[in-house]
Amino acid sequence: MSTGAVDGFVEPGRGGGLLDVVRQRYLLRLVVRKDLRVRYRGSVLGMLWSYVKPAVQFVVFYFAVGVFLRMNEAIDNFAVYLFAGIVVVNFFGEAFGNATRAIVGNSALVKKIYLPRELFSVSALWVAAVHFFPQLVVLVVGALIFGWRPSLAQLAAGVLGFAILTVFSLGLGLLFGAVNVLFRDAENLVDLLLMVATWASPVLYSWTAVTEVVGTGTIWTIYQLNPLTPVVELFHWCFWAPTAGVEYVMPPDLWQWVGIAAVTSTLVLVLGELVFRRLDGRFAQEL
């Protein structure tokens, strides 16, 4: 008996994986619409929460770090600097967190019918992107107020940073989403990682504050190996550096770390897809 397609049916884990998601874009759109409807069912503000949550987060961080700890005196246009980092960690947090819970959260569908299960992880990423772009609009408007005049290279850096961030988030989401079906501890581990991610990248402080304490040795290398760190710096170079009055100094070997982040993100995506497809056949029975 063939282990592949039999009478039009495909054994879980034997399909095209993420390629099936591309081929079945209509199904993906349906899942995205379902996720958005479920999220905002009975909500008064609806999609306005895409603005409310990051706005509150920004105000809290700005006053706690910028005003009370006087970071706004150390960093010119600290509001733009801060929000450029916040949109990165918010997208990563939502995409990674929701993708981790995607299979368990759609257990009714997983147990009843077969469809490419990667649809649920990609849908979580898409929903995060839906919430990311309104924040990006706010960031652009705020940067323009502060005299934002980016070059083509800086705009390209922002696009590159978002691409790396997307690949990294999806890879981790596939990996932890598959493991979470077997071990629900994965959700708690993800929450812990997301908390660390906010502080383990230069969102609330500058990279120079890190080198002043640890230098540019082993700890600095470990710090830069986190893909979020160079991605946040790319967003800073794209949105904060071109604002009026800013004298931006790039971190040492930034482009080297960007290349490493791109390779790391790609490897994480490949690993995540391999683990996901390996465990795919067990999802229905484990749920």
UniProtKB/TrEMBL annotation:
Its main location: membrane. The keyword Cell division does not apply. The keyword Cell inner membrane applies. It is found in: Cell inner membrane; Cell membrane. Coiled coil: none annotated. Keywords: Cell inner membrane, Cell membrane, Membrane, Transmembrane, Transmembrane helix, Transport. It is a multi-pass membrane protein. The chain crosses the membrane at residues 44-66, 78-99, 119-146, 152-177, 189-207, 254-276. PANTHER family: INNER MEMBRANE TRANSPORT PERMEASE, TRANSPORT PERMEASE PROTEIN. Belongs to the ABC-2 integral membrane protein family. This is Transport permease protein. It comes from Georgenia faecalis.
